TrEMBL record:
PANTHER family: OXIDOREDUCTASE, SHORT-CHAIN DEHYDROGENASE_REDUCTASE FAMILY (AFU_ORTHOLOGUE AFUA_2G04560), RETINOL DEHYDROGENASE. Keywords: Oxidoreductase. Belongs to the short-chain dehydrogenases/reductases (SDR) family. The lineage of its organism: Eukaryota, Fungi, Dikarya, Ascomycota, Pezizomycotina. The keyword Isomerase does not apply. GO terms for molecular function: oxidoreductase activity. This is Oxidoreductase. The keyword Iron does not apply. InterPro entries: NAD(P)-bd_dom_sf, SDR_fam.
């Protein structure tokens, strides 16, 4: 790995007093991040996912290694806005502060489908579900940020796959369809959702400067996102990343760095490749006008959720 030398065991500072929320924490990068956070005495770790049995195993593993860690699972399906709203309400009923929101969960190269709310499933899961969670947790994040010596972060997982987005960047008029492109449509839809993660972090930083918002590419890791792909898609990932595949522990480093490193090292709204390296943009991923359009479109879609 290149960039910043970052060892989570030794380089994450004390997290005493901090409350952390990790989406997609039942496996992969989310679980690894939880295990690393737990080593540094946070006040409480909340994590979401769809599988309560897997969540129980994560809690057991954390408590076996760090018996004093307070950890709570919140069941949440990001492809359902009602589920996201329920999880957010459960969190705010239990915690009055939130220092780190790690938007880690996501799906990749999914066949054509819609969420329960009628959005293209990758965009609905990777962007809209997280956008609603952020919206509902922003009052808590802002209250925490207003406290003395606060350091509040929102970290959103993206991917260099964002460069596969449609020519327009985000096809706003088609987001309530399956967007069945004739060729490599699953990767185009994925790229669109990952472009949205980058743009939304930029707009969060602009609108809420007291909160440090970043997007991060973890690298290419053999997590469920890859291993659950069909044969040809899996082969494409492996062949195009020969010699570049990271271990799970390495893959979690960039998001852990963005969540905990000295704030002076981080540009609010920045996009980072592993570890802590300013990401390579294309024209649309650094387009303030498109970021504003995405923000306005998203807020209109999320009206009624308070």
């Amino acid at each position: 790995m290149t960039g910043v030398q970052f060892n989570p065991t030794t380089d994450i500072p004390s997290l005493a007093g901090k409350v952390i929320f990790v989406t997609g924490g039942t496996a992969g990068l989310g679980k690894e991040s939880i295990l690393q956070f737990a080593k540094h005495q946070p006040a409480h770790i909340y994590f979401s996912g769809r599988n309560s049995k897997t969540a129980d195993a994560v809690i057991s593993e954390v408590q076996a290694a760090q018996p004093d860690t307070q950890i709570t699972f919140l069941q949440c399906d990001l492809a359902s806005l009602a589920s996201v709203s329920k999880a957010a309400k459960q969190f705010t009923s239990q915690s009055s502060r939130l220092d780190i929101l790690l938007c880690n969960a996501g799906i990749m190269a999914h066949p054509p489908a819609l969420t329960s709310d009628g959005y293209e499933i990758q965009f609905g899961t990777n962007h809209i579900g997280h956008a609603l969670l952020i919206k509902l947790l922003l009052p808590t994040l802002q209250r925490t940020a207003a406290q003395p010596n606060a350091d509040v972060r929102i970290v959103s997982n993206t991917s260099l796959g964002f460069k596969g987005h449609p020519a327009s960047g985000i096809a706003f008029n088609d987001l309530r369809t399956k967007q069945e492109y004739p060729v490599i449509g699953h990767w185009i839809r994925y790229g669109q959702s990952k472009l949205a993660n980058i743009l939304y972090a930029q707009e969060l930083a602009r609108r809420y400067p007291s909160i440090t918002s970043t997007s991060v590419h973890p690298g290419v890791i053999s997590t469920g996102l890859v291993t659950d792909l069909g044969f040809w898609n899996k082969a494409l990932v492996y062949v195009t990343n020969v010699g570049k595949m990271l271990t799970l522990e390495q893959g979690a480093c960039n998001q852990l760095w963005a969540a905990t490193a000295d704030k002076e090292q981080i540009t609010n709204g920045g996009f980072y490749e592993p570890v802590g390296v300013p990401g390579t943009h294309d024209k649309l991923s650094n387009d303030g006008k498109l970021a504003g359009e995405l923000w306005d479109w998203t807020q209109k879609e999320l009206e009624g959720y308070e």
